[in-house]
From TrEMBL:
Protein name: PAS domain S-box-containing protein
Species whose genome carries this gene: Youngiibacter multivorans
Domain PAS: from-to ranges: 26-73
Transmembrane spans: none
Domain Sigma-54 factor interaction residue range list: 167-396
Keywords: ATP-binding, DNA-binding, Nucleotide-binding, Transcription, Transcription regulation
Length: 478
């Protein structure tokens, strides 16, 4: 009520209704403002420059009015605003005008078109150059330069980290997976990556994305196994303001919206609840989504890469995975082989992992032939991730610069020692001695050659241990 009254008073006010008076008021605003104001007509001709701006640029009003804006301020963008109708809010601009001592300074500029109905009739620029604003502008410029630098570096780093070239492997089954994945990268179709845990599904997903047309937009990973079912919809599609208690003010974008133009990587897709599968299918079909608590539809353009170590076909058969969604996701299928069928690649992996560690810690650690042989005979249920952990662990335990049996985990050794130790021409007593020697060395190293502790752990008398050390010719280090 009070508001309406105020508006009536305003529109009926004689001073306000008198055009001449109103112009005087606006001229005063321009005159007393600390900020610069520049006004051009729709052709870009200057029709007003206020006192603050004239003084800042050390210009005289009579030399400015009537001239084209770029004759006075060489790199002005105000003329563009009347053509495009766009608005620039608080952008950093470097002045390039005449001989003023303030030439080359960074200022903060807002540019806006003035419209009469649909027609742009002029453009107004507000230029902030108070001391504070100049400082802020200079800092913003420096920060922006830095951000651009890091963005480029990040692109370079991420691009090389996740490229097909940086992936290790030369074996036939791995090369076949790479061949299909490279083809997939060139298309925009959905990709389903299958393979046991630790085989490199996430590595493949990233390589496909960074080799695709979408590489300059984000790839966003959604771990379907890690998000509680009741939060999954809002995680994927976002929520509108006030849609539930605890919702962030202004709502939140979901991962699909964040990945717009890029790739959504649905990891562990087999763990997606059935209700969510239906919602996902709808978004993939319609190419638009609705945030939780909103009926507004938002178009999304994403490529889907999903991954699983479960058997989705079985899940379809027993009704835990939707058949229609399965077909939509499984357009290009890349089967990533387990490590045990690419044993030829083990040496390459070990070399590469050790090279990384050596570079990082400035060392020169390698692996013994026998230890490598053991690694090549193990079945690797945890695949490349397990191999990497074994190398990291062995590296951290090494005393000399060679990884031997002693540093390899017991689980691997127990299953693999015999075939390695069984060399042609050896008798059973020799083989037993070899095996015993390995066990003793491994325990002695673990206990820093403390014989009392080692004998205790092995459940033998100390004197027996000394005898065996002598008989088996084990060297005791200080
Ligand atoms: N070809 C490769 N070259 C180099 N490193 C690889 C390769 N494949 C996998 N790795 C490494 O192996 C580890 C496991 O890979 P990744 O996380 O991609 O496996 P995953 O199949 O997605 O596993 P999970 O199913 O358990 O999520 C990572 O450290 C990754 O860097």
């Amino acid at each position: 009520m009070e508001n309406n009254k105020a508006i009536e008073t305003h529109s009926e006010n004689p001073t306000w209704n008198n055009l001449h008076d109103r112009i005087l008021i606006y001229e005063k605003i321009l005159e007393i403002s600390d900020d610069g104001f520049l006004i051009v007509d729709r052709d870009g001709t200057i029709i007003e420059m206020n006192k603050a701006y004239l003084e800042f640029l050390e210009l005289k009003k009579q030399n400015v009015i009537g001239r084209h804006v770029t004759d006075v301020i060489l790199n002005s963008k105000l003329g563009e605003i009347t053509k495009s109708g766009r608005e620039d809010v608080n952008v950093v601009h470097k002045l390039a005008s005449g001989q003023s001592p303030n030439k080359d300074k960074y200022v903060i500029v807002t540019r806006a078109p003035v419209s009469d109905g649909n027609k742009v009739i002029a453009a107004v620029g507000q230029i902030k150059f108070t001391r504070n604003a100049l400082d802020i502008a200079a800092k913003l410029k420096a920060m922006d330069d830095e951000v651009q630098y890091y963005r480029k570096e990040l692109e370079r780093f991420v691009g090389s980290k996740y490229s097909f070239q940086s992936m290790i492997g030369e074996s036939a089954p791995f090369n076949e997976a790479i061949r299909i994945a490279k083809k997939a990268a060139k298309s925009d179709m959905s990709v389903l990556l299958t393979g046991e845990t630790g085989t490199g599904k996430e590595v493949f997903a990233n390589a496909i994305h960074y080799d695709s047309e979408r590489k300059n937009r984000p790839i966003i990973r959604i771990n379907c196994a890690a998000i509680p079912a009741e939060l999954m919809e809002s995680e994927l599609f976002g929520y509108a303001e006030g849609s539930f208690t605890g919702a962030v003010k202004g709502g939140k974008k979901g991962k699909f919206e964040l990945a717009n133009g890029g790739t959504v990587f649905l990891d562990e897709i087999g763990d997606m609840p059935l209700t969510m599968q239906a919602k996902l299918l709808r978004v993939l079909q319609e190419k638009e989504l609705e945030k939780v608590g909103s009926s507004e539809t938002i178009p999304v353009d994403v490529r889907i890469i999903s991954a699983t170590n479960q058997n989705l076909e079985d899940m379809v058969r027993n009704g835990t995975f939707r058949e229609d969604l399965y077909y939509r996701l499984n357009v290009i299928r890349v089967e990533i082989p387990p490590l045990r069928v690419r044993m030829d690649d083990i040496e390459l992996f070990v070399e590469a992992f050790l090279a990384d560690l050596n570079e990082k810690y400035d060392t020169d650690v390698s692996i013994s032939e026998d230890a490598l042989k053991v690694l090549k005979q193990y079945k690797w249920p945890g695949n490349i991730r397990e191999l990497k952990n074994v190398i990291d662990r062995s590296y951290s335990l090494v005393d000399d610069s060679i990884i031997t049996f002693s540093q390899l985990p017991k689980t691997i050794l127990v299953k693999n020692r015999l075939p390695v130790l069984m060399k042609a021409g050896k008798t059973l007593p020799d083989l037993v001695d070899d095996f015993e020697k390995e066990i003793l060395i491994s325990y002695l190293e673990k206990n820093s050659y403390n014989c009392v502790k080692t004998a205790e752990e092995l459940g033998i008398h100390r004197a027996t241990l000394y005898n065996k050390i002598e008989k088996l010719n084990i060297k005791i280090r200080d």
